[in-house]
Design a protein that fits this description.
Keywords: Periplasm, Signal, Transport. By secondary structure, the chain is an alpha+beta fold. 38% of the residues lie in helices and 12% in strands.
């Protein structure tokens, strides 16, 4: 492996395990500070955010975290497993942010009545929601809106509200780092410099703006909130995962 691209907390886990080398970028001065890891081992390749999805045919629509506990959703909800899928891990991190650590675990325990069961892949949940096999599942903005716009998936994105009516999301960026002892280190550096170049990053930014505009059309008109502590929280979770792999 020469270059690793993955979601939190797996990039933090790889860093902790010594799988990453120092990741430098030719145009490093143009990068904002929050795009660089504190230890210099990885950078943010592309922004992304956690979201939930709900089937177009489901009525009444789930609007809040509490709604997902309703008996009418028994065996109609599924989320990817935290620690095995990046989006599932983001769900746990977001619930901790919204409810508190213990309250988040208590909520997930209550949700098990409606949960179909574990899923190692978030990507497999979208088609199930589109077909009506599931009513609600977790996802991320990039993946969900790509399916809505390109595959005409029959679902929409939404951000569940808490008890006060506040809707929150979590930054779920794609991180990139050079592998330690990369067998093709020179080419790895060329790839990193190309992907982080202003021209390529501008293309990614334009696509993100287009998709976030679609998010507001297809889902809740809620402000996307970035948890500024996502890297710290991801590091904490990565430490708790120990040797588990994605």
């Amino acid at each position: 492996m020469d270059v690793l691209v993955t979601l939190p907390p797996f990039i933090q886990q790889a860093d902790k395990q010594g799988s990453l080398d120092t990741t430098t970028v030719a145009d490093a001065a143009a990068l904002p500070e929050n795009a660089k890891a504190p230890g210099g081992r990885y950078v943010v390749l592309a922004d992304n955010y956690f979201t939930m999805i709900r089937g177009d045919s489901v009525t009444p629509k789930a609007q809040t975290w509490s709604d997902l506990l309703d008996p009418r959703f028994k065996q109609k909800i599924q989320y990817s497993t935290p620690g095995q899928a990046g989006d599932g891990t983001a769900l746990l991190l977001l619930l901790r942010h919204v409810m508190g650590d213990q309250q988040a675990l208590d909520y997930l325990a209550r949700l098990q009545t409606n949960n179909v069961g574990p899923s190692a892949s978030t990507g497999k949940l979208g088609p199930k929601v589109s077909k009506g096999e599931l009513a609600v599942a977790n996802s991320d903005v990039q993946m969900a809106l790509a399916s809505i716009t390109k595959d005409k998936a029959a679902y929409e994105t939404f951000l569940p509200a808490d008890a006060t009516g506040k809707r929150s999301t979590l930054a779920l960026p794609y991180f990139m780092g050079k592998a330690a002892n990369a067998p093709h280190a020179e080419n790895a550096q060329k790839l990193i410099d190309f992907l982080m170049s202003a021209d390529v990053q501008r293309t990614l930014s334009d696509e993100a703006v287009r998709r976030l505009g679609a998010h507001r059309r297809h889902g809740e008109r809620a402000e996307l909130r970035c948890d500024p502590e996502v890297d710290r929280r991801s590091r904490d979770l990565a430490a708790g995962l120990g040797g588990r792999q994605r």
